[in-house]
């Protein structure tokens, strides 16, 4: 997702999309669909047309502009269908589940989903997660001149268009996905630091895992429920055996050229509990100190310490991912030579 995309989404793309749909509906009223369908299925060249339709249906997500449709569908879907109730802090680390299926055009010469195509699916899955979880906060941060949520070092109000930038993506592959096989993408916030919001996404075998509950959003039929033991407790399973691949991504929030602390965006959406002192933005790392964390009391109520403990667990993995930025320094411009320059890259 490029920086500035969301700044244009509400004032430009939403009205344009609504106008396009209205025009298409107006034109559809003048089409004799029954005659059109009859001619399509029985007229000369029908076999070629039917095969072409089957090709489009099995490969629609790989067609030109399909990526754009999928991503902006995620935006529109959550603008229209976002639940009225405010999500609780516990939802901050919950999964967003998106289903998909491997198209024939995504299949490589090994007859499974090409590794490169995982990244376009990640764009869609992250768009669902961020728009649903943090969408209401984005206009508030974007109108910073009014809300004064983002301040500079001298207390000045930061101005500029709000946007999100994708900084990096890492993906680890465990199993293959066969042609036309369905799968699910489970994305959630892993952690954040002073600059980056880290997101983890698991590609999961479709229909094998179902969450114990939904947070109020639309929940589909996700397969069998978790197994319940004789004493009424949920049995512990190795859910990782259903994981096909795992990816980590990092986002940066911007107001113009100014980097916005991810905690400000999360807090603007009401997902951060009250914090002691400077809390989220205090200490050397900008994320609080260990002394501030203290002991956690009352496991059923998510307070600041619960959220901070979960964030720190995620940072144990995210910090290694962030360290890979240093590999840029390994590029020496071929000072000791290069193997060769090859065509059709």
Automatic annotation (TrEMBL):
InterPro entries reported in the protein's UniProt record: HotDog_dom_sf (IPR029069), THEM6_lcsJ_thioesterase (IPR051490)
Ranges annotated as spanning the membrane: 6-24
Keywords from the UniProt entry: Membrane, Transmembrane, Transmembrane helix
PANTHER family from the UniProt entry: PROTEIN THEM6, PTHR12475
UniProt family annotation: Belongs to the lcsJ thioesterase family.
Protein name: Capsule polysaccharide biosynthesis protein
Organism: Lasiosphaeris hirsuta
Lineage of origin: Eukaryota, Fungi, Dikarya, Ascomycota, Pezizomycotina
């Amino acid at each position: 997702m490029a920086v500035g995309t969301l700044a244009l989404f509400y004032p430009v793309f939403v009205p344009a999309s609504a106008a396009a749909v209205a025009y298409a509906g107006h034109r559809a009223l003048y089409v004799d669909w029954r005659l059109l369908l009859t001619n399509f299925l029985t007229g000369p060249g029908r076999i070629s047309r039917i095969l072409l339709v089957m090709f489009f249906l099995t490969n629609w997500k790989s067609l030109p502009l399909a990526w754009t449709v999928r991503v902006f569908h995620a935006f529109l879907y959550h603008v229209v269908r976002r639940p009225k109730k405010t999500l609780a802090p516990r939802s901050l680390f919950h999964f967003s589940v998106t289903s998909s299926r491997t198209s024939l055009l995504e299949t490589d010469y090994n007859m499974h989903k090409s590794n490169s195509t995982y990244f376009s699916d990640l764009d869609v899955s992250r768009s669902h997660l961020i728009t649903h979880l943090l969408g209401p906060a984005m206009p508030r941060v974007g109108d910073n001149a009014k809300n004064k949520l983002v301040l500079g070092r001298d207390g000045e109000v930061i101005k500029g268009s709000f946007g999100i930038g994708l900084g990096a993506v890492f993906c680890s592959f465990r199993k293959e996905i066969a042609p036309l096989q369905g799968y699910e993408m489970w994305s959630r916030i892993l952690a954040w630091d002073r600059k980056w919001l880290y997101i983890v996404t698991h590609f999961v075998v479709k229909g094998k895992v179902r969450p114990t509950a939904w947070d109020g959003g639309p929940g589909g039929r996700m397969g069998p429920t978790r197994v319940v033991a004789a004493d009424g407790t949920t049995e512990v399973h190795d859910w990782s055996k259903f994981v096909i691949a795992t990816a980590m991504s990092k986002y940066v929030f911007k107001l113009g050229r100014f980097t916005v602390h991810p905690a400000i965006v999360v807090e603007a959406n009401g997902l951060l509990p009250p914090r002691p002192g400077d809390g989220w933005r205090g200490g050397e790392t900008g994320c609080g100190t260990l002394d501030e964390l203290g002991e956690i009391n009352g496991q059923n109520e998510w307070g600041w310490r619960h959220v901070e403990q979960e964030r720190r667990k995620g940072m144990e993995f995210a910090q290694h991912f962030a360290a890979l930025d240093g590999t840029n320094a390994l590029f020496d411009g071929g000072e000791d030579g290069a193997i060769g320059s090859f065509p059709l890259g």
